[in-house]
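[Q] Does anyone have a clean structure-token version of this?
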Amino acid sequence: TTTTHELRPHLIRGHHYELIPREVYAALRCWYGEITPCICRRVVYDSSSLTSSSPPPPTDDHDDEHDDDDDEVFKKVEPHIVLYPNLNSSPSSQQQQQQRLSTTENGVCASCRRIGAKSRCSRCLTVQYCGRDCQASHWPYHRTICNSAKKKRTSSSKTETEMMMQEQLIISWKDVNWGRVGLNNLGNTCFMNSAIQCLSHAAPLTRHFLTNRFRNDLNSSNPLGTGGKLALAYDAVLKEVWLGGHKNACMSPTTLKRAVAVFAPRFAGVSQHDAMEFLAYLLDGLHEDLNRVKNAPYVEMPDATTGQRLSISGAEAWDAYRRRNDSLVMDTFYGQFKSTCVCPRCSKVSVSFETFNHVSLEIPQQQITTRTIPVLFFRSAPAGSANTRLVPLRYGVQVPKNGCVGDIKHALSGLCGIKPTQLALCDVYENSIYEILRDGKAVSTIRPDDFITAYEVDPYTNVSIHAIATHTRGDTKFNASNTNEEGGERNLFGYPFLTSFDARMTCTKVWNHIWRQVSRLVLWPAGVDGNSKPIIERLKSALTIRIVDNSGKPRPVFAKKQVESSAMLDAASILPCNSNAKIADVLGGDCTERFLFLSLEWSDIILDGLKLIDENRFLAFSDHASLLVTLDQCFETFTRPERLDENNMWYCSRCKEHVRAMKTMELWKLPNVLVVHLKRFAFKHALRREKLDAFVDFPLQELDMSRHCASSSSYTRGSISPTSNSASPGQSSMNDDNGENFVVDVRSMSER
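[A] Here you go.
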């Protein structure tokens, strides 16, 4: 006799037990062993679903003659194993190409792009599929290539056929864009195009459509859906993007636009709409069209009772919702909120659970009385310092709106650790210092588009000289009248800088001091350190330091007689790098001036085929955490308790009236693909909304949601796809299998 095991009554799925496929259970049993016998749940298939599988691709009798092997739709692929006797030797280029074709590209389904396809089209033998559904879905886009390849195969010898198969396989895989297709603007449809691009890169839902398995879930009788029309329209656009991308660089989603306009007239016409609003409607519409529950029962959504464990209450609410809603969209994009309301009068606590398909996050805003000013800070590099290779760091300095520049210095001092007396704030305009800001200057006079920089300098004393330096190209020539021979302005580039040094230093020490401030701008060859003197001297030869006036004209301070030619002017204004004369003696009476103006002229140097001077390095900087808004901060703002207003009061069952309760929203159950919406508009009044341009920083890998999820049993780690802005455990993006990221534009897509 066979012993049967049954579940106890009143068990809750998701808390007491979970249903998993047989293959998953076998893997878990292999890894961890088995103590108790397994309980199998018998699945009864509907007879209609067995006969609704997609037929194999039709054969065109008028295109080519019928072959004996046409009845065999698929050809099984034998495993290909390449062994290298010597592990130290690398395979040849031909072996690498064969291994790549047989193990990577040759094992990817041409329809759903899933790795590990074991069947091949028997007509052309050039593409592989997971099954018949994938081949039927891909056949309209593969028909032309398949018929052409079959004709060549029937008219060629065996060797030529193998070469043709390999060549055709390389061409077909090289030309396919795999979803990298732009969407044409149909009249202010940027919101729709961006939503489609995001959703099309969510792997579970996209593969469900590309394999035609969604047709088994179509619910044409659902009164809440569109009768399957929205799902069919989305399927047409999705296949054109993923399967027809090798033909067009962009396409028009006209079919989906018309279907949405019929059932959601607010999206009709050419008006502008919110992308997240459209995406929420699209997810909800696809869920209703693919809802597997044909006759939804009446279900009451229970609240958490007093003394009941929240894990049980959450599982009961989720199970009750699934009795009416069961689709792949829900399995992929739907999660669960925990809502807590506290009555301000009787302190009654009510906990309920709600489902969601996206999370709308507010971007944390600064207080009304404060202002954040970006300041680019340049740290000084004195002799023996390790700061010579540090790039400038941009801070977000928060100061009162009615404050002054002195407040900016004190706030910046707390961030960078430099005393306020050693900080000089400047306003930079057109690659030069336009103004040195005084401590008493009001913050309100600093415009939002002003570029503020800060420099670490010595306090103003009688023995210190402050030098203002700008960068220019070394091909500028001057004549004896101190004017540019070409008659044009100086070609300035990069950020200027302000530095200070002792007036008693020699010219050589001053030159080396300036070099330490700018040596990071030169691209140092690999393996070069401070001990490689010949190479360092070669690098220093790219820099010429010229003493100029405040307008940029050379000052012949090193001339011993009257300057009569441009050559004498050029030589008399250059700071020598090997002179023991003190800079104060050279400047003479000019040394009493508080500032010395320098022009750093750079010449192109190529060392071992490497260009060492790159203007882009002169503009490089890093952002400090004080300037960035992180995704964690947005989630912290979302889960912060807030008092309900007069229009959204909560009914207290104990007080028997509506009250302004304290409400807290928390993430309880995370979906496989978490759609995050950032609210970019701040409400000012009924006629004005302000656009928020704050940059939100988020990790592309290892996103940890445990600190924001109230349930410890929910999966809280995953990755973010920059294309879809979705966080998901495992493989959630259609580009995750090759590690590529793409930048999506309105009409194109490029590799990041």
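[Q] Thanks! Anything notable?
[A] The chain has a mean pLDDT of 76.
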